[in-house]
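JOB MANIFEST
job_type = single_chain_structure
chain_count = 1
residues = 355
[input]
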Amino acid sequence: MLFYRPLKNPAKPDIKELQFYMETNTNAVDIKELNERIAKESAFIELLNMEVQKKIIGQSKMMNSLLIGLLGNGHILLEGVPGLAKTLAIKSLSEALDGSFSRIQFTPDLLPSDVIGTQVYNIKEHEFSIKKGPVFANFVLADEINRAPAKVQSALLEAMQERQVTIGDETMQLPKPFLVLATQNPVEQEGTYPLPEAQVDRFMLKTVISYPEMEEEQIIMRQNLALQADAIQSVVSIDQIMKARELVREVYMDEKIEKYILDIVFATRFPEKYNLEKLKALIGFGASPRASINLALAAKAQAFINRRGYVIPEDVRALAYEVLRHRIGVTYEAEAENISSEDIITDILNTVQVP
């Protein structure tokens, strides 16, 4: 089965039409061939999950988010109480991929140079040399990111967006892949600094972590009391991940799915156009264009993880909360009525027509 969408007027295309055209491969897409190729190339996902599960019990939602961030070249913001294996998860993933890992404990007295690095004067050479910070790693854990002030949080902005760091007059590229996993505690708010919207918007997903089930926690307890624990082996190469990222972009997304994503995002900005007038007073600001991009890319990564060569509406719906919950600003009226961004997303998903 072949899918092909030509431009209606190549000489003077419509802006939206051109956007869709540029995103989609201009050649006819053989879904059957693409499906077979992705089913073959995505086999390492199961191997990777099996290896990480030596240390991480349950938490499938968190692991799925990490894989989507890895395949979609995006960063993840995890919110959950302490002790839910957030640190262990990304460290285990880095070991299974044979990638470099660094942990930055964000505290009120942390400085930007403690994150990205600084210039050090060499007395013998009579010149400044650059000492790289812990951000120069494949997997960077920004632990309790909201405990550091804005000047430290902003030190990550260039690294997260451009995948580079500027120290003095020298700009250096970060290693590939580069993934920032930031955590924040939803309970304790004393001595914390809320993340600015510009910072939050750079996270592809915000995943809320819950407690494990009783059976899972029993296994966790037994593992931690055991004399010996299984060591995680490197089972997937960095090159495999980079090739998989390219293949994720090739996952077919029909124009109806693209329109569905845009309808969801635009409903956060102009709810009255989607028969959601009641939300207008509850939404302070809607999702940015990064939401559309990240929801589309995350849906493609989800299809790849499920060994499919095409995106279905369920992929979009499954990730809508994680992509949008940190990009929708709620008003004081919504807070007074105890209405969260998740409640708003639920209303939108229940109203916007599914293709």
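[summary]
The domain at 12-41+251-351 is CATH 1.10.8.80 (Helicase, Ruva Protein; domain 3).
The first helix runs from residue 15 to 23.
exit_status = 0
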